[in-house]
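Our platform keeps sequence and structure together, in a single record for each protein. Because each token names a local backbone shape, the row as a whole describes the fold. One such record is reproduced below, unchanged from the form in which we store it:
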Amino acid sequence: MSRFNLIDEKWIPVRFLDGSRDELGIRDTLLRSKKIASIEDPSPLVVAALHRFLLAVLYRALEGPTDIEQAKNLFKAGLPGEKIMVYLEKWRDRFWLFDEEYPFGQNPNVSEESRGPWNRLTAENNPTKNKVLFDHTNMNNVGECPPKMCARLLLSTMNFSIAGGRGFFPSPSCNAMMCIPCGESLQKTLCYCLVHYPNRDVMRADTALWERKPKKLPLKNTKRLPTGYADLFTWQPRMILLEASPSGNVAMARFVPGEGFDNSSKEADPMLPYRMHTEKGRLPVPFREDRGTWRDFDSLLPDSEGNAPSTIQNAVQLSGGKTANLPKSVLVLGLRYDPPNANLDFWRTERFSLPAALADVNPIRTEIRESLDKAEEADKALRQACFSFASGTLSRGNRKASTEDVRAFVKQMPMTAWYWSSLELHFQQILPKYTPDRDPDDISCQWLKHVRDTLDAAWEQHSASTSMGNAWAVRALVRAEGPVRRKLKELDDEITWLEGDS
């Protein structure tokens, strides 16, 4: 018996422009998107997945856009409600969460031998042998999951399944930063992200998961390329079948390997920033465990090589050079895992202001990268001082400290972490200053002052905590401060030059 149709049922969590919250079905979310501020869920993976799902629906309902002019018309006129309703009614029977023939996002051919608790759908809840910090889920007693949450987790699984053994492929874009430029309403956000197809042929070849018949298992061809954006956003890295319990909820689910993504640098995900690797070519920019996302902020901005997320490049084109039409912020969401061991490190969501200078004909990516490089150079001097201090502290008399011991000592020193966390606030304050009528030298001068003061404060804190220590530590401190003092002098000289030049 068919039950819980995603078109009508309330399952997508939204916040309206007036601040109120509710859950809506697909139809109401899209038709009322002009009055919705954002999609909100405790899981950043669900938030990203819901955006990608709604975009897949729009790509198929609108059969485009196939060029920038169509995209601009949608941005100005809004989403065509009649087209959306006609499409949803045409495919209504494919949006039942529970159905014998076409259960949404699932495969009815998954065997009963692969049964397990429903929370295998979540990247956040790992087995006991692979827990992440603060995950205290009891895998032997996870209870039941309501249908609306199962629907959200199915989409999250499509986009954020990590690699595993026994033929389990990762999702196409799971180990990278996903970038969603945010408008004043969900409608604007979706239009920013609705990157046009390369051409009409790609649009015609594209299909979404619900438009195809469930594949026979086991799969004969385990890897393939996507046919288009809708296919990419509704990928099946796992073949799943939810089992409804008498209560109507889900306690168990069947779970087997699905389709692998035949990676190709030509098949770029429109939400991802990319970078060039000397050996591997064009690769997505991942989250880094040892650094904040803001330190790679320039990778989110348009450049001449097209490595920025297509969603942001599309938003800039839609703005028509008008600052008022630009997205005011960008959400960066996703997870990080270690591919060889399939160990999930963390999942994350961050929001950044987008500089008004994006509307300018002169890209600001280079300016911001140069500013970030100045901070990296100061950090290098701080690390050199830390290594010198650690070596001097551990080496006494004729004893020479091993490199391993020095690195372990430096790792527990708090200065570099404090330096970067303090500097991040200043970076967020500097971003709004990148306007079309900006003075680059003035912004650079302000930033260098923040870098200088933060570097100085980081070392002074360390000096104050060490000055009352033993003679070996004090001696090591005096010998170690050279790199920091030289860098401070360089920064002072550059600031003086900029102030005099202005």
